[in-house]
């Protein structure tokens, strides 16, 4: 955003957005009864990121709670959001946030649970389909199938014949909970790496064999 753009935005009463700003949306369902579900791991990552930058979530004009701050002095700014709506209707809040901050989908990072990746694994990609994930499905619909960045947090496949929808709406198992803080931390690291170094560099770091 140039100097005259800043002046125009201020004159309209619109938010002034730092040049290197990223909207980071952690997907999940609102309410204490869902907070520890596998489906809410995206919001767990959002909480971790907000804690790292020392920002608190506050009510927002869009139907979301938002925490804002810089990764470091002079570094990228993160607008971290958790929707007040349910997972299946994530698109409206995400679209409203992009419009409010004047950001394009190229500045959107969506953090979500992923059944097709083993638990305790993080994978990064830009673009693609929804893969049956209803949160992604609604965001794609609301953004005209835009290519945004995804941080895919592996929760693994349900055991036996358990339904996938039931599986993601259950809390992590006791064994998983012992490792969960590391998984959440890794996903937060991945968001920071994308914002600081770009997707390709972040992929090289997080997709490399340990």
TrEMBL record:
Where tRNA binds, per the record, is at 34, 86, 88, 134
> For the site Discriminates between blocked and unblocked aminoacyl-tRNA, which positions are given?
29
Write down the Gene3D superfamilies for this protein, in alphabetical order: Peptidyl-tRNA hydrolase
InterPro entries, per the entry = Pept_tRNA_hydro, Pept_tRNA_hydro_CS, Pept_tRNA_hydro_sf
Where does it mainly reside?
cytoplasm
The residues annotated as site (Stabilizes the basic form of H active site to accept a proton) are: 113
Q: Which Pfam family name is an example for this entry? A: Pept_tRNA_hydro
What keywords tag this UniProt record? Cytoplasm, Hydrolase, RNA-binding, tRNA-binding
GO MF annotations for this entry? hydrolase activity
Locate the active site: 39
Reported EC number(s) for this entry are 3.1.1.29
Q: Does the keyword Cytoplasm apply?
A: yes
PROSITE patterns, A to Z: PEPT_TRNA_HYDROL_1, PEPT_TRNA_HYDROL_2
What does the subunit comment say? Monomer.
Its biological purpose? Hydrolyzes ribosome-free peptidyl-tRNAs (with 1 or more amino acids incorporated), which drop off the ribosome during protein synthesis, or as a result of ribosome stalling. Catalyzes the release of premature peptidyl moieties from peptidyl-tRNA molecules trapped in stalled 50S ribosomal subunits, and thus maintains levels of free tRNAs and 50S ribosomes.
Q: Which family does it belong to?
A: Belongs to the PTH family.
This chain belongs to the protein called Peptidyl-tRNA hydrolase
Recorded name of the encoding gene:
pth
